[in-house]
Write a structure and sequence with these properties.
heterodimer, A: 362 residues, alpha/beta, Rossmann fold, two-stranded parallel ribbon, 45% helix, 12% strand, B: 336 residues, 2 domains, 24% strand
Chain lengths: 362, 336
């Protein structure tokens, strides 16, 4: 971490799961001068705990990006949006273009671009590495991540921008909504199931392992112009992974659904329609400004969704993810970045359990 | 001849002005909201149009001659100068919490109010929640016998739609969840029990502003208090007072309900029916402020109350600063 001491670093998406932990560790352990880009202030509760300069801005705004990048040596581009096509395209593609243009203009900043392993599709082959084909899936977030990677490669080639792409497996651990908080809560409600008996191979990455890899990607010369897959590499199944959560929740054996279940697949469409209507994010209930009719409609939709998801708790993507047999090959990150997952599964799970207790989620 | 209404300016047009002070002013017969002040005049004009407020200005001096009192609803770092200006102009002031970022600034505001002989009230809104008032009365009546333990758990993932982002910005505030959220519960405890004579404090900041905090306090009469605050997770959101004869508790975000467990019997009592919500309590607060001016009495939460809690919080942060930061980033949320 000596490499970051005193250097100016920008983290876009500074309030997200990955960006906030990265910014915090850059400041505390790396002694870097960290600037984190904040889109929505109310999401800044985690990152604001660290000695980090928070600046409000939108990655789609060239002037804001030029200002945020001023004097920075490294940019970790973690900002991204999930949702429909217009939002994903504007944020993940056009936003990335703005970041890359600003970095190229600055002439000094190297870029670490956060992509995702999902760009290889849900059903990659055993031992797939960074050279595995990129698969469009029709999911806006993932397909626009593929487009954003193309932009990074274009800027590297045509503008000489020093850049690295990191493709993490699904991220779990403290603060992870999708692979820690949600499954734990669903297990508490008796609604979590394994897929195909939990025999699918678990390709996931613990948050601090991913941050280790990002930090290495931002300092190593060997990383420039390269793309890295990052995962824990524990060689376990999803059944073994979720067994840890089951023990934390202290619930009975988890039921299993079949990945090919026609009922589960048929209920996908109405659930997706409800998710679209509900929009993102819960709000504080007591100071909720929505009129009573809106609140009533929202709670009705949420009840309907809960009933539907009882029969179909997973999306098509999830069913593929949790039933897949292939294991990602992270040899390149191990060799070129000297990346190694430093915590054992038990250690990482213990830290996660402690966090869940502290945050009253267990 | 009709009684003259208190002419009011709201200074700072952020979320609390929009959702609290401005709509509340329309409910209080004793006041007339005549001006909105914000350096972002477009924002002020938009709110003025929406709420039918006649005047808009970029600075307080632009409207000071036309008003009798000002509500300072700006982020706290600009309030000392604004309060000073308001008192110099002869205005009464209702100041959002915290009264100031530091004891020194808060004392300066109190001195300015005393010099100008004007009312200084602080927006410690819990003092206007009917269930907090009832709990205070019941404690005074000795319903619990000797008080033994106080437990406060207040937490919710941050969601307040702040415009300036000040609760998260260390260039604007010296503290996080304790200063911007926990201050309400602390003020309520000090109102009920006076100041603690000892405390231990820990939080989760690593060079920034805390989002999780724990305080243990010892009040006179062997009363122990535990306060847990969070803006990252949902806690029980309950204030409980245990005594020799039972326990009383109030939900943090409910203004009307009080739970009691006395002599082995549990009961849930609604202490006030009718209107509740943010605008209702802010309106009650404004009514008290207006009446404290006309009746020449102290408001329910005075400048001295505001100073006391700022002083205590400053002590908490000083105690934390005396400990070194860890070398490795601890797991998120952990306090030490």
């Amino acid at each position: 971490m000596v490499a970051y001491q005193g250097r100016r670093v920008l983290v876009t998406g500074g309030t997200g799961l990955i960006g906030s932990r990265l910014a915090e560790r850059l400041a505390l352990e790396g002694k870097a001068q960290v600037r984190a880009l904040v889109h929505t202030w109310s999401k800044a509760a985690w990152v604001s705990r660290a000695d980090v300069q928070l600046v409000q801005g939108d990655i789609r705004d060239p002037a804001a990006m030029a200002e945020a990048l001023q004097g920075c040596d490294v940019v970790f581009h973690c900002a991204a949006a999930r949702g429909g096509w217009p939002l994903c395209r504007a944020t993940n593609v056009e936003g990335t273009r703005t970041v890359l243009e600003a970095a190229a203009k600055s002439g000094t900043a190297r870029v670490v671009h956060l992509s995702c392993a999902a760009v290889h599709g849900p059903l990659f082959a055993e031992g797939a590495d960074e050279t595995a084909p990129l698969m469009r899936s029709g999911i806006p977030y993932i397909d626009t991540k593929i487009e954003s990677e193309e932009l990074v490669r274009h800027f590297s080639a045509s503008h000489g921008l020093p850049a690295t792409i990191v493709r993490p497996a699904p991220v779990w651990g403290p603060c992870s909504p999708g692979f820690t908080v949600m499954p734990v809560r669903q297990m508490q409600l008796g609604r979590w199931s394994l897929v195909d008996g939990g025999h699918g191979i678990c390709n996931a990455v613990y948050i601090d392992h991913l941050v280790d890899a990002l930090l290495l990607a931002g300092e190593r010369e060997e990383a420039l112009g390269e793309t890295f897959l990052v995962a824990d590499d524990y060689g376990i199944t999803w059944g073994e992974f979720f067994e840890h959560y089951r023990r934390m929740v202290n619930t009975g054996p988890l039921p299993s659904v079949r990945s090919e279940s026609p009922v589960a697949r048929a209920l996908r469409r109405p659930i997706r329609a409800i998710d679209w209507l509900l929009g993102p994010g819960p709000r504080m209930p007591e100071y909720e400004p929505a009129p009573i009719l809106v609140r009533g409609a929202r709670s009705g939709l949420m009840r309907l969704r809960a009933r539907l998801t009882r029969h179909a708790p997973f999306s098509d993507w999830d069913l593929d993810l949790y039933s897949k047999q292939g294991k990602l090959n992270i040899a390149k990150a191990r060799t070129l970045l000297d990346y190694k997952p430093r915590l054992s599964l038990d250690e990482a799970m213990r830290a996660t359990e402690a966090w869940l207790h502290d945050q009253h989620l267990l | 001849m009709p009684e003259r209404k208190l002419r009011l300016a709201v200074v700072g047009c952020g979320a609390i002005a929009e959702r609290g002070h401005i709509p509340a002013a329309r409910r209080v017969g004793e006041v007339r909201l005549v001006a909105l002040v914000d350096s972002d005049t477009a924002r002020a004009e938009a709110l003025a149009r929406r709420f039918g407020v006649p005047r808009v200005a970029a600075t307080l001096s632009g409207v000071a001659a036309e008003v009798d009192a000002a509500i300072l609803a700006t982020p706290p770092h600009v309030r000392p100068a604004l309060a000073e200006e308001a008192f110099r102009e002869g205005l009464h002031v209702l100041c959002e919490k915290p009264l100031a970022n530091t004891t020194t600034e808060a004392e300066a505001i109190l001195r300015a109010a005393a010099r100008a002989r004007r009312v200084l009230a602080v927006a410690h809104t819990y003092r206007f929640f009917p269930n907090r008032i009832r709990l205070y009365e019941m404690l005074g009546q000795g319903v619990l016998g000797g008080v033994r333990r106080i437990d406060v758990r207040e937490g919710m993932p941050a969601g307040w739609p702040t415009r300036s982002g000040y609760p998260f910005r260390k260039e604007m505030v010296p503290g996080g969840v304790l200063l911007t959220l926990g201050i309400h519960s602390l003020d309520a405890l000090f109102w009920w029990f006076g100041e603690p004579f000892a405390f231990q404090y820990e939080d989760d900041s690593v060079g920034g502003l805390e989002s999780n905090a724990r305080i243990r306090m010892h009040f006179a009469g062997e009363v122990e208090a535990s306060v847990r605050l969070s803006r990252t997770c949902r806690l029980e959101n309950r204030m409980t007072v245990e005594g020799e004869r039972g326990a009383l508790s109030v939900p943090v975000y409910d203004q009307r309900v009080i739970h009691q467990c006395l002599g082995g019997k549990e009961a849930r009592r609604v202490v006030e029916r009718g209107r509740s919500g943010l605008v209702h309590v802010v309106a009650e607060q404004l009514r008290d402020f207006a009446r404290s001016i006309t009746e020449q009495r102290a408001p329910r939460a005075t400048g001295a109350d505001g100073l006391r809690v700022v002083q205590f919080i400053e002590g908490c942060y000083a105690a934390k600063r005396a400990r070194p930061l860890p070398e490795q980033a601890p797991i998120a949320g952990f306090t030490w």
